[in-house]
Amino acid sequence: MPAAIGASMILLVVLIWAFMPTAQNNDFETKVKSDLANLAARLEGHIATRLTIGEQLRHSLAVGQFTSRQDFLNHTTYIHRLFTDFQAINWIDSMGVIRWVSPLKGNEQVQNLDVRNHSFVGPTFRQAEKLKRMQITPPFALTQGGIGFVAYVPVVRLDRITSFVNIVFRSDPLVRTALQNGLLERYQLVIMDNKRLVFSSEDGLTADETLYHEHIRVGNREWTINLMPTPATIAAHSSLIDELVLTILILLSIAIAWLVHLAMVRQLKVMVSDKLLRTFIENSPSAIVIKDAKFRYLHANSKWHEWFNAQGVDVKGLSSTDVFPPGYAAEVDRQQRQIMTHRHMVEQEYLSPRVDGKKVPTFVQMFPIMDDQGEVIAVGGTLTDISSNKRTEEALRQALMKAEEASQAKSKFLATMSHELRTPLNAIIGFSDILMGQYFGPVGNVKYIEYAKDINHSGRHLLALINEVLDISAIELGKRELQPEPLRLQNLLADCVKAIRYRAESQGIMVALITAPELPEIIADKTAMQQVFLNLLTNAVKFSRTGDKITVTARCRNDGIVVTIADTGEGIRKDQLPLVTEPFVKGHSSSDITHEGVGLGLSIVKSFVAAHHGTLQIDSSYGVGTTVTVTLPKTKSLMVA
Fold first, then answer.
1. 588 CB-near residues (< 8 Å, 6+ apart)
2. What is the side-by-side order of every strand in the sheet holding 376-385?
3. What are the beta bridge partners of residue 484?
4. What secondary structure letter does DSSP report for 280?
5. Contact status, residue 175 vs residue 44, Cβ threshold 8 Å
6. Is 489 exposed, middle or buried (0-12, 13-18, 19+ CB in 10 A)?
7. What is the 3-state secondary structure (H, E, C) of 161-189?
């Protein structure tokens, strides 16, 4: 058998040598075709990744993620930082006119350009409009310089085009970022779209001068990649010892015949090894290892050697204890034994000690490799560097701490300033009370009494605002401690309605209180609850008109007591409704409607209700009225507000 194999191989070598190019030339051609195929795959994937950005922008616009020009520009600015081969990312309205340009600098000439009627790109734009999918123009000379092409991505909502995303690519940087290192040192490269030039590695180089060709799809276009080895590359692969090679090959054929005989005996083992080796991806950005059932290394990819074995020591047959420090090796061994016990993937984070002395956070996934009978024959593992993730988490944590510190500083400042303002205000209110009461004798002119009343009213109003600021500052600082006590809610509501009834009736507003009989007692802070319902009732009166009605109802449900304050007043606009419980946000922002207050009332209500483990819900229709629902538990421990 070995003799037959040897004779066959010798005959085959001679025939190939006689009728085919030399092996060296054949290897060279194979190498060129392999480089061309790799380049085509890399470039096609490279461009597809960037075209996906257009689809992502289209989706964001279609679902309303970008509500303004600034949102669009902020997002595209971030994209420009990631991908430098974009000339511009633009937004085109439904009429075909470029409205938003990112970046504007260097692209000013396309602002307000009508692309639908443009002589060159117009047909592609109209085709995208007709098909309702992305279309790409042939390459052309960009106004900004160089060769490029444009992708038009229609934004479709409810089967109707509402706008377009327009991405302008610069061919030269786009192609160069996809090339392998040193490729242009070995080859001359020309890329054509039909008869139009997309890219040329040298001025004056044409596709007719190249020897090898490959086609790729770029959206709706087809590009032809033309590759030709440089004279230096061809010379480097030339040889004058071809005949010597033939002699050596004949001798090798005899040796190979014997090795083939031995290989046939070991075929089954080779098949198993081949199945294991196919599991690995050598060029993975993660370190990949495979070990046998006794946890000894069978294979490790180049990334693993780069991190943990820069000296290139042969680790086959070694265990983790032979490679890593004892503590780390013990953790790895524990994870491996867990895989053998449970027979499924085990994930864990480690601080992996690399050869450069650094301990790098890694995410380790180990998994069992089984044969056809379901027996574990090996253990595979991937180690992924998560340093950037950890840095991001730490940056977010630091940012959160700084934000909290800023909030605390703001609250302390407001509290301090509010206390400083109360002292002169109390004096102003006191002296105005004396003038209004004429405690030291008649003032003389009645106008002084009117002015004193105005001073007194303004002072009390300002003092109330300062008290609200103090309340919200105490709440934000966590210093507003609640004093729980048994409380009958119907009595408290009656007192609150009575407090605002005079003001309401003086404005021609009707106030009604409806409570269910025998409402159970709740455990709550009386002062806080009074402030909650007085704030809500005051708001209802403030935003109601003559002839409107305010209805306060209280009823018992399984989950607690529900208090509803409904009015038929002005209501709140839909876009303002989600913000009205934020500090310093007022229910009306229009210039023709002004009310007293700085927008802290509902924020205080929200904090006090949450501290009582309750819920606050606000429903409103502009021009129809507002309904505020407060749900309080029957019994519950209180938090600090």
1. 543, 570, 572, 576, 594, 595
2. 297-300, 287-292, 376-385, 359-370, 346-353
3. 525
4. -
5. no
6. buried
7. EEEEEEEEEEHHHHHHHHCCCCHHHHEEE
- φ/ψ of residue 534, rounded to 5: -65, -40
Distance CA 416, CA 410 (A): 10
Looking at residue 165, what is its pLDDT? 93
Cβ-based neighbours of 450, under 8 Å, separated by 6 or more:
none
Chain-centre distance of CA 408, in angstroms? 28
**Single-letter amino acid code for the residue at 376:** V
Q: What share of the chain is helix, strand, coil (3-state, %, to 5)?
A: 45, 25, 30
| C-alpha to C-alpha distance for 519 and 494, rounded to whole angstroms | 13
Cis preceding-peptide flag for 103 (omega within 30 of 0): yes
List helix spans (H) across 579-622.
601-611
Contact in structure between 298 and 290 (CB atoms under 8 Å)? yes
Interatomic CA distance for residues 533 and 632, integer angstroms = 12
Q: Which of 362-368's residues contact partners 24+ apart within 8 Å by CB, and which partners?
A: 362/287, 362/386, 364/332, 364/335, 366/335, 366/336, 366/339, 367/339, 368/339, 368/340, 368/343, 368/344
- Determine the 3-state secondary structure of 34 from DSSP: helix
Backbone angles phi, psi at 606, to 5 degrees: -60, -45
pTM above 0.70, yes or no: no
Joined together, the tokens standing for residue 237 give 């692969």
Measure the N-to-C terminal CA separation of the chain; round to a whole number of Å. Answer: 91
Q: What are phi and psi of 192, to 5 degrees?
A: -125, 145
Question: Structure tokens of 274?
Answer: 């081949």
> Mean pLDDT for each 10-residue chunk of the chain (641 residues)?
70 65 69 88 89 89 86 89 86 92 88 91 92 93 88 91 92 87 86 91 73 89 90 71 69 77 70 63 80 86 82 85 86 85 83 83 87 84 84 85 76 66 72 76 77 75 65 58 83 87 88 86 85 87 90 87 91 84 60 50 82 88 90 66 52
The whole-angstrom separation of Cα 193 and Cα 198 is: 6
Query: What is the rounded radius of gyration, in angstroms, for the C-alpha atoms of the chain?
Result: 40
Q: What are phi and psi of 556, to 5 degrees?
A: -105, 135
DSSP annotation of 179 reads S
Contact present, 193 and 147 (Cβ < 8 Å) = no
Among 154, 156, 152, which Cα is nearest to 167's? 152
- Which residues are bridge partners to 555 per DSSP? 562
> CB–CB of 380/346 below 8 Å?
no
Query: Taking the CA of residue 245 as centre, how many other CA atoms within 13 Å lie in the half-sphere pointing to its CB?
Result: 12
Write out the DSSP string of 525-576. EHHHHHHHHHHHHHHHHHT--TT-EEEEEEEEETTEEEEEEEE-SS---TTT
Residue 483 and residue 638: Cα distance in Å, rounded?
Answer: 9
What CA–CA distance (Å, rounded) separates 516 from 224?
A: 82
Alpha helices (H) along 376-510: 387-437, 446-477, 489-506
Place of tokens 């008109």: 545
CA–CA distance, 383 with 347 (Å, rounded to integer): 10
**How high is the pLDDT of residue 640?**
47
- Tokens describing residue 266: 């070991």
234, containing H or E segment:
helix 231-236
Q: For residues 302 and 289, what is the distance between their CA atoms, to the nearest angstrom? A: 10
Sign of CA dihedral 125, 128, 134, 140: negative
Locate tokens 């994930």: which residue? 347
| CB-based contact 596:542 (threshold 8 Å) | yes
At position 498, the amino acid (one-letter code) is K
